[in-house]
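FW: tagging you since you asked about this chain on Friday. Here's the raw sequence from the shared folder, copied in full. Didn't touch anything.
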Amino acid sequence: MTHQHLKLSRDEPVTDRHRVQRKVPKFIPANLREFGSDLRTKLVAAEQRIVADIGGFDNRRLLKIVLREGEVMPLLDAIPGIEVVSQEEKTVVLAFASEDGLQEFEARLTTLAQSGVVTRKEIFYAIEDFDRWTPEDRKGNALRSQGFPERQTFALDIELWPLEATNLRVQMLEAFVQWVQLQGIEILDRLIQPSLVMLRVQTSSQLAGAILEHRDVRTVDLPPRLGVSVEMLFTDINQFSQTPAPYADAPQIVVLDSGLTSNHPLIAPAVGEAQGFVEPDRNASDNVPHGHGTFVAGLALYGDIEANIRSGEFVPGLRLFSGKVFNDDGDDQHEFVERAVEEAVRYFFDTYQCRVFNLSYGDLNKIYDGRHVRGLAYTLDRLTRELGVLFVVPTGNLDIPDDPRATYPDYLLSDEARLLDPATALNAITVGGLARHTASRDAQRYPDKIEDLPIATE
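HL: got it, structure written out here
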């Protein structure tokens, strides 16, 4: 029986590429004085909650501004003393506000409440409420759903606010590092890029609670959990003829993964170089039980493995390079994968002029939740813009229910079926997959015992 795939329709009408900025606000309060008084009361209440924030590299307050549904972000920077640092969702804007900035905000709202007239009144029309960036707001998707690990100490990834000025980013990071060290929290790694400042730390539940209260913390989440478990093909490679080397000017591809078994008979003739970028030993070998990097390298090199097996020959049409950027061994990796990926990309780009990179990596702890694009996806976008390279990444792995036909397509619409980091990268090619065969894994592995295996029925 043929089953229809999920159909995705295009929304109409399609908006123009270059939109003219709307000057008339969508919302205009009927009673300006009442509106100004109410909004000022909300601002004062938010200021009282903000004092619970810990630390900060300067004395400004972090103000959460909630916009009205459908409103675009107003020109908040036009108010002296207000600096927008992030828009987390369509209706949530975070801004650093000095004492003078808060007083100016209050003064304008007071004027609006008294006379109904104020400079830049359209800014206030777009605002629904003021609040504090709470510890719950700071929790990433994995931390919200799984909570802290039930261990005495564990690793956490901390992202700080993406300040535009380089000197302020450095100042913020140095101040936060000092605060972390004073708390007795161990720093495992740190990462600072133009719009990405992160630390990986080893901490406890008690100390983690303080991190969630810190003013300069944007997001706290659990470290990556790799979705890379695969089944290997059980085929005797001795049945194939010797694999030739690719022609001299063959296109080049770099596989960024868990390393490479570079002496594999079907891969070795095509290997240009294999390098390791994971500290401390920077080993290039794919020395983990199921060899994910070698498996992916074979797919990148040959594409349809089954077709090659049926034809009885493997003839590479590409020159293969391998960069080991993570360890797929089940243990926590102390270093950020973003750091290893950037070093690997720059090395192969500078040394061999490689421009196509495959990264079959999906962080199961970073399911896209509609907020800002995070670490690895941002890193890939930045490298793409700077170097003109191309990344191919997966949508992410999804555990299919026992009877997918009965629940199709509902399981594809669940929260767990959303994209994994780095699939949200804007400038990468994100690839999904469809099952080629309807038989179960066990049925494919043990065809002689098919009568003893459970068969899915409609």
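FW: The first strand starts at residue 61 and ends at 67.
HL: agreed, and Confidence is low (pLDDT under 50) at residues 228-233, 447-458.
FW: great, closing this out.
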